[in-house]
Amino acid sequence: MPNLQQFLKQLRTVEIPRLIKQSVSTLNIVCGNESADFDSVACAISYAYFEHAKSAQNVYVPIINIPKEDLMMRRDIMFTLNKLDISQDLLFFREDLMEYNKQFNTINAVIVDHNELPKPTKQLITDVIGIIDHHADKQLYPNANPRIITVTGSCSSLVTNFWSKNLESNKYHEALNDCAPLLISAGLLDTANMKYKVENPDVEAFKHYGDLNIPLFTQFDSAFRELRSAKDNIDGLTVKQLIRKDYKEYDLIPKSLESKKLNFGVTSIVEPVEELFKRFNSKDNFFNSCYKYREEYDLDCLVLLTSWNDPKEGRFRRELIIIPKDGLYDTVENLCNNAPKLELKVLDKESQKFVIYEQFDLSSSRKRIMPYLQDVYSTI
């Protein structure tokens, strides 16, 4: 069986050209979500590799669901890929998916780390044939098989556990040894070194990893420190790159026909907004870049979710910053004011431009905030 690097190279140079030459009409892919965080990337690549381990005839292409140029902003992912000697040229991105959409009549997708196709890929995928995810269940694609949507710290744990039960033992352990650095890294980051939001599937998965002989990654404490340092390093990024580093778009659908659908672009950032003002020389500079991004991507509202450990106060903190489009400031502010669960307190605001809140509900990250805001919007 080829190792992970050889598998990816073989997909690019042998398997996909063979399918095209033979005029095969259907291509199977494994597609992560549009934020392309470590969990999404690890799940997509590993699931496709396990499929190959099951049968060399199974061609599943792992898609990292961002433009290729955006991967360099995800320095935690680059750190691990470099350790595995996997270059960007061996990977598959949104540009590849767009090209395959032209070359194949049907694109069937196993989607990992999400359970609803995002706007950038909805028109490129014919059918969802499988789901492994840990977000709120949108009740879509009932015929997907597998269809595993369950609470856990990291979706990578669900991928590991699924294949431990659906692959011959010797094939499973051989494949796991090769893709475990990706799965372990995702699991460590999502659970803060197995200390945050850890659920039974995470514990089960890490039992599998503990038996492996890959010292760089099974020394969990040191691996987590290096990964976290790489993930939090935003030096040298522009505001646009910082926004795109961990970014998703959501449509909020109103219950009333009198209200309009709102398109939110939401990014997670690892520094408080005051530090961002310093990093980009001034508050005005920072917000002007945000306004420009909002207009470029035709958003009704750009939302920044900041989170960090505050050494002065000795506690974890969150902020929520809304930057609505002209004419929608009151609507979006009203939406936030009607979201008591988030425990928002205004820190700063400029009418018709932005509001900066401190968010005292520390348990709610983007994964929980956006479904909650959807629920609130459908009632006001």
How would you summarize what this structure contains?
By secondary structure, the chain is an alpha/beta fold. The protein has two domains: 4-232, inorganic pyrophosphatase (n-terminal core), CATH 3.90.1640; 239-378, Roll (Diaminopimelate Epimerase, Chain A, domain 1), CATH 3.10.310.20. It is built from 15 helices and twelve strands.
Index terms:
44% helix; 6-stranded mixed β-sheet; 15 helices; alpha/beta; 380 residues; inorganic pyrophosphatase (n-terminal core); DHH_sf; DHHA2 domain-containing protein; 20% strand; single chain; 6-stranded parallel β-sheet; manganese; 12 strands; Diaminopimelate Epimerase, Chain A, domain 1
Could you please describe the fold and organization of this structure?
With 380 residues, the protein is α/β, with parallel strands linked by helices. The chain folds into two domains: 4-232, inorganic pyrophosphatase (n-terminal core) (Alpha-Beta Complex); 239-378, Roll (Diaminopimelate Epimerase, Chain A, domain 1). It is built from 15 helices and twelve strands. The chain has a six-stranded parallel beta sheet with strand order 3-2-1-4-5-6, with helices on both faces. The radius of gyration is 21 Å and the shape is globular. The termini are far apart. The model has no long low-confidence stretch (mean pLDDT 94). It comes from Candida glabrata (strain ATCC 2001 / BCRC 20586 / JCM 3761 / NBRC 0622 / NRRL Y-65 / CBS 138). This is DHHA2 domain-containing protein. GO terms for molecular function: exopolyphosphatase activity; metal ion binding.
